Amino acid sequence: MFKVIGLKAFFYWVLFLTVFQAQASIGSVNFTIDKTSIYRGNTVTLSWNTPQNATYYDLNVLKPGASHWLTFRRGYTSNSFNRFINKNGVHSFYISACNPTIGFNSLGMFLSL
């Protein structure tokens, strides 16, 4: 049997569901790099955990001398990536955990070599 509720009660019920759904979030990304120093021609392996609610990852690098981040993989679904190093100097990596329904975790992890 269905209960008839007033418009005000219906509004609060919808508001409650909206707030409840908005509280879903993506957990923190923690990742490692398999080397502590690199040289041009090396390959490094980036590995990371599977944060709660993450469905894919965007992988980013800041190359030596660059002024902006480069996204080198979008929508990546594995938990590791082998990255070829084609330039000497400090490379900084950033991984965003994403979910098309929730958004992305902007608190991804930065690591520099």
Topology summary:
Elements: H1 7-22, E1 31-33, E2 43-48, E3 56-62, E4 70-76, E5 80-84, E6 92-99, E7 103-105, E8 110-112
Antiparallel strand pairs: 1-2, 2-5, 3-4, 3-6, 6-7, 6-8
Signal peptide: 1-24
Keywords: Signal
Tell me what you see in this structure.
Keywords: Signal. The structure is a single chain. Strand 6 and strand 7 form a beta hairpin. 14% of the residues lie in helices and 37% in strands. The N terminus is likely disordered. The strands form two sheets. Strands 3, 4, 6, 7 and 8 form a five-stranded antiparallel β-sheet that branches. The protein has a three-stranded antiparallel β-sheet with strand order 1-2-5, with no helix packed on it. The protein has a single domain, classed as Immunoglobulin-like (Sandwich), CATH 2.60.40. The protein has 113 residues and is mainly beta. The longest helix is centred in the first third of the chain and has 16 residues.
Structural class call reads mainly beta
- The parts where pLDDT drops under 50 for at least 5 residues are 1-22
What share of residues are in beta strands? 35-45%
The Rg value, from CA coordinates, equals 20 Å
**Biggest sheet: strands, sense, closure?**
5 strands, antiparallel
The coarse overall form would be elongated
State the helix count: 1
In CATH terms, the superfamily is: Immunoglobulins
Q: Give the topology string: H per helix, E per strand.
A: HEEEEEEEE
Determine the CATH topology: Immunoglobulin-like
InterPro entries: Ig-like_fold (IPR013783)
Signal peptide: 1-24
Keywords: Signal
